[in-house]
């Protein structure tokens, strides 16, 4: 496994397993398979409603807590300072853990500036090792930087060959953020996977299109946690460390016209403020 070092000195595995849109039953089955296959980095969120199952799969795996890297994320209803403190404790309780490796604000709405203080306190209290932001744009990241006494270590945004985030990354080159990419395989977009550049490079290296894309992520310096329920894909996605794309091949992938799959609105869409009783998990 390759690790990156974050701006707070902690290390993060560059490849992991994401559990977005997975039921608790799916998590218990497939996350257990992923841990058995050697995945050590798990990305979940309060809003995935499967943290209890993540905790159970981890316990059942027999893996040592210190050998795993576990991320969760809070939703905007829980950003106000007092609520944020309670939400962090509730997250640990659902996961049945003493600490999180990484905690993110999931969406850039509501009282995130106020809540950041609670995130910093959680680090000082040992409840969380690293903190960061997800889906925040440049202006909103700077609002956090203006108040931070502990700077975000990680920014998680959509990243894939169709949306490489080079300009957002360049805007924060001095911060040494670790960039995590969601939709690393375009959410499984068949048109992306069928692009000739990935087919040609796959033939050259004896790899699938998905493996070429994941290798591109590694060389771009991104952290990714592709989601899969397919054991072959799970094995393939981890088998990307025995070859290297050339600079020209990286450039060819970076020529792909840029367009995000999802544009994060500046104002909160209505669904953000929907029900969020995370104690209700099947
Ligand atoms: N912060 C945020 O707002 C946010 C948003 C979205 C996602 N995320 C995180 O990012 C993770 C990944 O995103 P995602 O799950 O939406 O998208 P993704 O990982 O880009 O794509 C998942 C899809 O790709 C397919 N796939 C996986 N490996 C494959 C392979 N080797 N070959 C062909 N197809 C493959 C899977 O199908 P099979 O099951 O058939 O393999 C699945 O349909 C999530 O699980 C979550 O942890 C965060």
TrEMBL record:
Gene Ontology MF terms: oxidoreductase activity, acting on the CH-OH group of donors, NAD or NADP as acceptor
Extract the InterPro entries matched here: AKR (IPR020471), Aldo/ket_reductase_CS (IPR018170), NAD(P)_OxRdtase_dom_sf (IPR036812), NADP_OxRdtase_dom (IPR023210)
The answer on whether this UniProt entry bears the keyword NADP reads yes
Q: Which domain of life is it from?
A: Bacteria
User: Catalytic positions?
Assistant: 48
Q: Which UniProt keywords apply?
A: NADP, Oxidoreductase
Q: Where does substrate bind?
A: 106
Q: Which PROSITE patterns match?
A: ALDOKETO_REDUCTASE_2
The residue ranges of the NADP-dependent oxidoreductase domain are: 21-254
- Identify the residue position(s) of the site Lowers pKa of active site Tyr: 73
PANTHER family (alphabetical): 2,5-DIKETO-D-GLUCONIC ACID REDUCTASE (PTHR43827), NADP-DEPENDENT OXIDOREDUCTASE DOMAIN-CONTAINING PROTEIN (PTHR43827:SF3)
Q: Which family does it belong to?
A: Belongs to the aldo/keto reductase family.
Q: What is this protein called?
A: NADP-dependent oxidoreductase domain-containing protein
The beginning of the lineage is: Bacteria, Bacillati, Actinomycetota, Coriobacteriia, Coriobacteriales
């Amino acid at each position: 496994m390759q690790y990156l070092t974050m701006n707070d000195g902690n290390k993060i595995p560059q490849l992991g397993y994401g559990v977005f849109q997975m039921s608790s039953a799916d998590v218990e089955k497939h996350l257990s398979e992923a841990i058995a296959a050697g995945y050590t980095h798990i990305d979940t969120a309060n809003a995935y409603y499967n943290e209890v199952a993540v905790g159970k799969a981890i316990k059942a795996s027999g893996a040592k807590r210190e050998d795993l890297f576990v991320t969760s994320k809070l939703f905007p209803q829980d950003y106000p300072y007092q609520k944020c403190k309670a939400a962090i404790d509730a997250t640990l309780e659902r996961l049945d853990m003493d600490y999180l490796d990484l905690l993110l604000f999931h969406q850039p709405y509501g009282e995130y500036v106020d809540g950041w203080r609670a995130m910093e306190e959680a680090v000082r209290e040992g409840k969380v090792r690293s903190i960061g932001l997800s889906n925040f744009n440049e202006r909103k990241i700077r609002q956090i930087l203006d108040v931070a006494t502990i700077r975000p270590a990680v920014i998680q945004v959509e990243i894939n060959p169709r949306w490489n985030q080079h300009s957002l990354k360049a805007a924060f080159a001095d911060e040494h953020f670790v960039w995590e990419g969601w939709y690393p395989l375009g959410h499984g977009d068949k048109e992306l996977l069928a692009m000739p550049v990935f087919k040609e490079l796959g033939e050259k290296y004896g790899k699938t299109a998905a493996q070429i894309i994941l290798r591109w992520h590694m060389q771009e310096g991104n952290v990714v946690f592709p989601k899969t329920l397919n054991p072959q894909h799970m094995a393939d996605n981890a088998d990307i460390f025995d070859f290297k794309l050339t600079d020209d091949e990286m450039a060819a992938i970076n020529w792909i016209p840029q367009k995000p799959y999802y544009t994060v609105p500046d104002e909160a869409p209505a669904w953000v403020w929907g029900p969020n009783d995370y104690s209700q998990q099947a």
